[in-house]
Write a structure and sequence with these properties.
The structure holds two protein chains of two kinds.
Chain A (H helix, E strand, L loop, with lengths): L6 E6 L5 E5 L2 H7 L2 H10 L15 E4 L14 E6 L6 E6 L3 H7 L4 E5 L6 E6 L2 E6 L8 H12 L5 E4 L2 H4 L7 E3 L3 E3 L4 H7 L2 E7 L10 H15 L3 H9 L5 H8 L19 H7 L1 E5 L9 E6 L7 E4 L3 H6 L9 H14 L3 H16 L19 H12 L3 H5 L3 H7 L8 E2 L2 E2 L10 H8 L11 H6 L18 H18 L8 H12 L5 H21 L28 H12 L10 H6 L7
Parallel strand pairs in A: 1-6, 7-12
Antiparallel strand pairs in A: 1-2, 3-4, 3-6, 4-5, 7-8, 9-10, 9-12, 10-11, 13-14, 14-15, 16-17
Chain B lengths: L20 E3 L2 H12 L2 H6 L4 E9 L9 E8 L2 E7 L8 E6 H8 L5 H6 L3 E3 L5 H6 L1 H13 L2 E3 L3
Parallel strand pairs in B: 1-7, 2-5
Antiparallel strand pairs in B: 2-3, 3-4, 5-6
Classes of the chains: A alpha+beta, B alpha/beta.
Chain lengths: ~600, ~160
Amino acid sequence: MYGYRGKILRVDLSTGVTSELKLDLEMARKYIGGMGLGCRLLFDLIDESTDPLGPENPLLFLTGPFCGTMVPTGSKATVCAKSPQTGRWGYSTFGGHLGADIKFAGYDGIMFVGKAEKPVYLLVKDDNVEIRDASQLWGKDTEQTWEILKKETGFKKAGVARIGLAGENLVKYASILIDHFRAAGRTGMGAVMGSKNLKALVVHGSDRNVPVGEPDKIRKKSAELTADKTEDATFRMYSELGTAGYVDMASMMYGSLPAGYYGVSDFDSYNLSGTTVKETILVGKTACFRCPIGCGRVIQIDKGKYATGRFAGPELEVTGTMGTLILNNDAEALSFANKQLDLFGIDTISGGNTIALAYYLISEGKITKKDLDGINPKWGEVDSAVKLIEKIANREGIGNLMAEGSLAFAEKFGVGELAVQVNGLETPMHDPRGFSGMAIAYATSPRGACHMTCDMYNYQMGVTDEGLGVESVDRFDNEAVLAAKVQDFRCVTNSALTCHFYPIKADELAEMMRLVTGWDFTLEELVKAGERIFTLQRLMNLKLGYDNRNEGLPKLLLKPLDGPSERHVPDVEAQLDTWYKYRKWSRKTGKPSKSKIAALGLSDLS
Amino acid sequence: MILNYQLTVDNGDTPMNKEKLLFPSEEWVAKYWELLNANAAYKDAASDWEGDFIFEVNADGDIIKEPMKLYIDLWHGDCREARMAKDDDKAEFTYSGTYANWKKLFAGEIDPIKGLMSRKFSLGKGDNMGKIMRYTKAAAELVSTAASVPTKFVDE
């Protein structure tokens, strides 16, 4: 067995009993690891009646076959469960070195079931597993928690996942902070942790020798790949400028960075870009385990109203939600808001969107400051956002409603259609009016409006993949077939767990799978595995009550804007027609055809 | 340099015939210089740009035997100098691609960013990505100006 440890640590928080589950290698080959394997494992364990915040909802942290090996960026990991935010299948991928530590401790993943009676954290030191009291950590922010855990466990470099107040208070979009403020942000996995009274997990693994099929060839291939990728424009941009290096291009060239709650096309984001951050407040950068890019920013602001000290700097998504989306162009204020979101453990996309919606509703006269407990957000200022962040994390006053997400917040005031979300998940900072492929990506994503399940903006900007047959012609075209191929490919990268920012091609990934696992894993098998995992997620969501009539874009994303998006509005219905036809799924019911299910080896799940 | 000459192309007998200039050549780059300085959109987008470029046509072993380079000095929305580059010319940025891809760029089939993303074009090692990212609109105008030069390509 190569690339896998062959076992998953199972922790029953209700009984305190820990045990090991044997990894089914046949299942591992079909679903690879990470997201795919997690979805398959959960398929048997949850259904429509499962309360996402109940003890019956298992929470899985899973690695992939590359984790802990030399494969560049291959040491990410996934956390998954039924989502309290969407009621459907939820997962979030994260970096840092927690994944590698899980692998070095001898596991492919950790599954939590049940609920602890009182706050606890899990300490794993190789095969020594302890459930420890976390009373002293409850109520602490994610930075304090991390510092205390380092002292208390004595492991200064262990992989650490922890929640903040938002997770403790079951904010539906609570995030989990990993190591140096990498985040598992999407679909509310932090709330699931909180519902289990699980404040943190600390994993220190010693066995760094993960068995692989062809170690020398992996080393050589990894070096060759990275030598090649360092020539890639996106690699260079993310490495030099962080993900926010994309801000200038997105706003000036494509109109894909939304502003003014999706209604402004000419906002000057110059002050927020990764380039400006580099020139002003940047003091360092961080990289996840085995990552040659190092997109993580470290900033330092010591003086003034928005002093953050030394902390993780803003990445692209929060630069949107706490920057352009509220028309704020002050990088220090943005960095301060970003820090608050991270300390409380709030997803910067969903949290930022929900707060930006408050700005919009006030500006449109749909709500008053009385509705916001006296807070009166004005475009461009951040102080109101910071106050709302605190209220959300504490579920205090209006924060209790906003903690349910932007749809619930808007519906309360009779304007649900103004919430920019799909299937309960708020929209990332890649406007489909700038890249039409993001329309079908958001409409059909297995977890709601999501850019990590299909980054068509990258492909419609020019990224190609010959092995997949993906080459965009025009960013405004109906390229739903390409989007389906990208969705399938992202299923593989989210399961093998390589970073999207590392521009690996499908054939290169297939070769790495061969070298690591020793399997005869071809490009064809990779493509099929991707489609299988995407289809599996649809079957899972159907089991959980998914209704494909909700597939579409919110009203505000269908309003043409002047500027770089050239008043383009994607034809979502036409894209859905194309997409369903290509997938051979029923446009009416949203169900994959029986023949497709059989061809993908999923008949036992339908 | 074998390609350093001007062509007059007979497009037929219409009065719309116009002189086409071989890319790359001194005549082509001179025309480019003139048109770039007349491009108001470029002036606006690059109003505070300071830096020079080398546009390089990579050798492809087929159409282009040796790399060919154009030197362009850009300053606050103006082109101060444009010429075929000398062997020892250096510039702050180098933007390079094959002849076939330069043709696609001029034809509007790929834009300058798409060119980079698809790796049909590349920037020089060590070029300042942040500065480039800030001036993508200016880069687009540099290319659209090139596309407006009546151009004859060496392989047609």
